[in-house]
Design goal:
With about 400 residues, this protein is of the alpha+beta class. It has helices at about 10-15, 25-35, 45-60, 65-80, 110, 125-130, 160-165, 305-310, 370-385; strands spanning about 85-90, 95, 105-110, 150-155, 165-175, 195, 205-210, 210-215, 225, 240-250, 260, 280-285, 290-295, 295-305, 310-320, 320-325, 335-340, 355-360.
């Protein structure tokens, strides 16, 4: 979601929460709505799909403290008429009514923020030109493309795939470079031309007494270029909303909640500007056998009392198959034995360890022979002087 779109969207209304809602309230509202509106629960329902996209966008902004602060300040600025004597125009423009603002022309909100058509000469440049300072004059500010917005997505992986690494297909619907004009915004066979009024800077300066002001160029609307023959498919923006399939490579050892960044796979920038990035949040499901402690895998293996007393070799599972593990004679119940190099693969090479906890499995039923043998053992144990509670609780 780019800043230029924030003015027309009410993310709080989309989630059904108040502007002073806490993070927990926002997340709770999102979880409820995402379950109700998910495409899998509403097959073929276009309206539900659009609502699902809206609440997902709202959650992406409002659960990020920095984005939420910027969103609140941006909306407060424009809904209160914070620029000169002008106000926000419902069509997406900003109109001033006289001196002291930006002149008498109408500007697109995206142009004010520098996201309209390929440069980031926005409010900072306008205010930077006050008092004759800023970046110095009409042509000092170079025209720089405004990159596209970042996009967020979520995937869920089984524990073992997340541990060993996986390649996951992902389908995204988001603004992408127009396939007809290849993102230039101009009709194929033509090209944008440098604005002669601002020399491609997107900003013009004027003096008013002792003060100097910088403002978006009227001719190119602050973009620095003029398209005489716009592309008919994207209407000169260089961007189309389309579905694309990409492959996400999940590195080994990814943990639950970790974000994977794919550079340049986010929202396309206008008129050929660089694309934003894609951030994929990975959710990892629990495994029935293994647990995880950093780079180490953990597993609990049931053993018999006799195996701990006399010692044995047991077969334990690993990510690559089973291995033998020696249990020394006299091993205590609950002891952790270490199998080196059989844990989570590390990005730097090698792997963590497998931590095996041996846990005595107590039989719930014994036949007569086993019961007699156990009774004989207990008598022999007592005769040898062994007392399992010796020194315990003052005994």
């Amino acid at each position: 979601m780019s800043q230029r779109e924030w003015i027309e969207k009410d993310f709080y209304k989309d989630l059904g929460v108040s502007p002073d809602a806490s993070q927990d309230e926002i997340k709770k509202a999102y979880r409820k709505l995402s379950r109700e509106l998910h495409p899998d629960a509403n097959p073929g329902d276009t309206a539900a799909e659009e609502r699902y996209k809206a609440v997902t966008e709202a959650k992406g902004v409002l659960t990020d403290p920095a984005k939420r602060k910027e969103y609140d300040e941006t909306r407060a600025m424009f809904t209160s008429g914070g620029f000169g004597r002008g106000g926000y125009a419902p069509s997406g423009g900003y109109t001033t009514t006289g001196g002291g603002g930006f002149g008498s022309s109408e500007f697109n909100i995206g142009d004010l923020f520098g996201g309209g058509a390929g440069n980031d000469s926005g409010l900072g440049d306008i205010f930077g030109g006050l008092f004759g300072g800023g970046r110095g004059g009409r042509t000092a500010t170079a025209s720089r493309p405004k990159r596209g917005a970042d996009v967020e997505a979520e995937i869920t992986l089984p524990f073992r795939d997340a541990t060993t690494g996986a390649t996951v297909p992902l389908s995204l619907t988001s603004p992408a470079a127009c396939t007809t004009c290849h993102g230039s915004g101009a009709k194929p066979g033509t090209s944008p031309r440098v604005c002669p009024h601002c020399n491609g800077s997107g900003i013009v300066s004027r003096n008013q007494g002792a003060f100097g002001f910088s403002e978006p160029c009227d001719d190119c609307r602050g973009t620095g270029s003029i398209i005489d023959d716009p592309c008919t498919d994207c209407h000169g923006t260089g961007v189309q909303n389309r579905t694309r399939n990409i492959t996400v490579r999940i590195p080994s050892g990814v943990s639950d909640g970790q974000k994977i960044r794919l550079a340049g796979q986010g929202e396309a920038g206008l008129r050929g500007a660089p694309s934003g990035d894609l951030y994929v949040t990975v959710h990892v499901t629990a495994d029935k056998v293994f647990g995880r402690n950093g780079d180490d895998l953990t597993v609990i293996v049931p053993v018999s009392y006799g195996e701990l007393v006399l010692g044995t070799t047991i077969s334990v599972p690993t990510l690559e198959g089973r291995v033998g593990l020696k249990v020394p004679a006299g091993t205590a119940d609950g002891r952790i034995l270490r199998v080196r190099g059989r844990g989570v693969p590390k990005r730097s090479g090698g792997a963590g360890d497998l931590l095996v906890t041996v846990k005595v499995a107590v039989p719930t039923h014994l036949d007569d022979n086993a019961a007699q043998a156990l009774s004989a053992y207990l008598e022999a144990e007592k005769a040898s002087g062994f007392d399992p509670r010796a020194g315990w609780a003052g005994a």
